[in-house]
Design goal:
Layout lengths: L6 H11 L3 H10 L4 E2 H8 L3 H13 L3 E6 L2 E6 L2 H30 L5
């Protein structure tokens, strides 16, 4: 008998998977369309073994898929929803940073001596 994982736990695992800068960069690059490994290596500038590891994590999580064209392995986003998730992440960061800029401006404009 298999036990089901609570949705919140599955979401936490998804966000843990996204919690690596190389994985995020791979997903950003794949938004432009399928990419071969050698192009990803050139753009990300990490060791090939590190990129392979990160691609395997993304594949296991179901965020990317791979296909073979001759000797070339192409990676692509498994679903357009991944691109949407990255977009929402950027929006959240922009909102957070805008709030910090406002706070910094308020501190600078403060009449209190430093």
């Amino acid at each position: 008998m298999t036990t089901s994982v609570p949705l919140y736990q599955a979401k936490a695992e998804l966000f843990r998977t996204l919690g690596h800068p190389v994985r995020i960069r791979v997903l950003e690059l794949l938004q432009e369309g399928p990419r071969p490994v050698h192009e990803l290596l050139a753009d990300i500038e990490v060791e090939s073994s590190n990129l392979s590891q990160q691609l395997a994590v993304l594949r296991r999580a179901g965020l990317v898929s791979s296909s073979r064209e001759g000797a070339t392995v192409l990676y692509t986003l498994a679903t357009p929803d991944v691109a949407q998730l990255l977009l929402y992440g950027r929006r959240i960061l922009a909102t957070m940073w805008a709030g910090q800029e406002g706070l910094l401006a308020a501190l600078r404009d403060s009449a209190e001596p430093v």
